[in-house]
Specification:
Layout (H helix, E strand, L loop, with lengths): L2 E5 L3 H13 L3 E5 L2 H10 L4 E4 L8 H10 L6 E6 L4 H9 L4 E4 L4 H12 L3
Parallel strand pairs: 1-2, 1-3, 3-4, 4-5
Helix pairs in contact: 2-3
Length: about 120
Amino acid sequence: MKKILLVEDNEINMKLFYDILSFQGHDIEKSFDGEDAYDKILKGGYDLMILDIALPKMDGFTLLKKLKGEGVNIPKTLIVSAFAMDKDKQQAKMLGCDNYITKPIDVTNFIAQTNKLLGIK
């Protein structure tokens, strides 16, 4: 069982992602804003962070910049965002994001990408 931090402010998306991941047998912790996610990441212990970009209090890019700037050990990161522009994907890559998928998600691809980042075949 892998530990995943799910950072998503939309309740419908949160439920969908949570249900998919919990069905896969993962231990999921929820965070609905960037500041809460920051505090949770500082405590550590996550195998994967699934991160939205448009979040209240601190957006996903700012969260990654802050963690990186402070030298915090960031878990593998999958960005799941409605932002589909190449510049957003490039910025995510520069900030150390491991993969980027756009909403609405393809469930099969979402499972495949999370499994890949978690080292599950």
